[in-house]
TrEMBL record:
GO terms for molecular function: alpha-mannosidase activity; carbohydrate binding. This is Alpha-mannosidase mngB. InterPro entries: Gal_mutarotase_sf_dom, GH38_C, Glyco_hydro_38_C. Residues 16-232 form the Glycosyl hydrolase family 38 C-terminal domain. GO terms for biological process: mannose metabolic process; oligosaccharide catabolic process.
Length: 403
């Protein structure tokens, strides 16, 4: 059954609000955000940028005759629902875009991209969750979602497999890369695994993504996140690109499926924070968003008859607990060749060391450090205390024997 629906406030047309955020919808479907704690404002959030992609499956490259379009003039249909535990805005519009590179060169736009955004603000959450559904009916182009900030900074933080790195938002080599004999322009388009963050002073904004790995910080003042939603290209390898002159990177073979025609779904989340990303637990917040608790609604009858189990399980159970900041869990599993539990932790910070505190709900008989292949490298220690600090980007694996 549907959840309880509460009536919208009469003075809050186009407003989503909780204890941390006030969100207003602009006429073109973008958002105006106000962080209630810091007072920082963000405007024109979630604008869509559409541009050419004359590259291949290896590299992005704009067309020599570029024509960039945005959703700034969109006329969206908006629906706002206030529920008992969350508020949600659904924004829908179509963008007329060039069908291909030829149309772009003559400023025609018979192609189409359908956009649906679902913005969810839970009543007790610092996050703004965004689902973006696209219907791509055009070729050889790139779609990005823009998240402007007010932060003056020359670097951006992004996570890696076992840590994080600070990247420059602008590469000075872009000004003279051809004169210096570079084979390819050093475009400051970076990759992330789960999150990227911009910060000035004590205030920052982090963007979490599920599967969207490519981002750039753009604009005259380099304050705007540009997250790539899709790149549509038609060739595996292509020669003489605008940003990569000369030979093709790979075989010049048609790959029509790489135009990504049809429906595509993406997920993002925005988190404002104060202090450093490490102290604010940005990495832990991203992990919590990416791996939510899985649950299901137990219906009052059994869809399939099964034999009753010979044991009872508790109504709730937690194997271990860790602090909300510091080390992150990379793996938790049964050991391959012994009756023990394997726990792998890593320090997601870029420069700060940290200690790990793990509290098991069961008695720990012994704890040993292992290699990643689970071969024990240290003698067994009594209890669950982990000796030694974790260096930045350091991962360590432990084997626990529990009572």
């Amino acid at each position: 059954q549907p959840g309880n629906v509460i009536a919208a406030k009469s003075d809050a047309e186009g407003i989503l609000e909780n204890a941390f955020w006030q969100i207003a919808l602009n006429e073109n479907g973008t958002l105006q955000l106000v962080d209630k704690d810091s007072g920082v404002r963000y405007d024109r959030v979630l604008q869509i940028e559409e541009s050419s992609d004359d590259g291949d499956e290896y590299d992005y490259s704009p067309a020599k005759e570029e024509w960039v379009m945005t959703s700034a003039t969109a006329k969206p249909q908006c629906e706002i629902t206030h529920e008992a535990w969350q508020s949600r805005a659904v924004i829908r519009y179509d963008m007329a875009v060039p069908l291909n590179l030829l149309e772009r060169s003559v400023r025609q736009s018979t192609g189409r991209v359908g956009v649906e955004m679902v913005v969810t603000l839970s009543h007790n959450s610092r996050r703004i969750d965004v689902d973006i559904n696209l219907d791509n009916q055009a070729d050889d182009h790139r779609l990005r979602v823009l998240i402007p900030t007010s932060f003056n900074t020359d670097s951006v933080l992004a996570d890696t497999q076992f840590g994080s790195l600070t990247r420059p938002v602008n590469d000075s080599a872009m000004n003279n890369w051809q004169q210096e004999g570079w084979k390819e322009a050093p475009v400051p388009v970076w990759n992330m695994l789960n999150y990227a963050a911009l910060q000035e002073g004590r205030n920052g904004m982090a963007v979490f993504s599920e599967g969207l790995r490519e981002f750039e910080v753009i604009g005259e003042e380099k304050k705007t996140f540009a997250i790539t939603l899709l790149r549509g290209v038609g060739l595996l390898g292509k020669e003489d690109l605008f940003l990569r002159p000369g030979r093709p990177s790979g075989i010049k073979m048609p790959v029509p499926d790489s135009q990504l025609r049809g429906l595509l779904s993406c997920r993002l989340s925005l988190l404002s924070y104060t202090g450093t990303p490490t102290a604010a637990g940005v990495a832990q917040q991203a992990r919590a968003w990416l791996t939510p608790v899985q649950c299901y609604n137990k219906i009052p009858w059994d869809a399939m008859k099964l034999n009753k189990a010979g044991f009872n399980v508790p109504e709730s159970y937690s194997l271990l607990k860790m602090p909300p900041v510091g080390c992150l869990i990379s793996a938790l599993k049964k050991a391959e060749d012994r009756q023990e539990v394997i726990l792998r932790l890593f320090n997601p910070a870029e420069s700060a060391t940290c200690d790990a505190t793990v509290a098991f709900s069961r008695e720990v008989i012994s704890c040993s450090e292992t290699m990643m292949d689970e071969h024990i490298t240290t003698e067994e220690n009594q209890g669950s205390n982990l000796s030694g600090p974790f260096l930045p980007g350091k991962s360590r694996t432990f084997s626990y024997r529990l009572a």
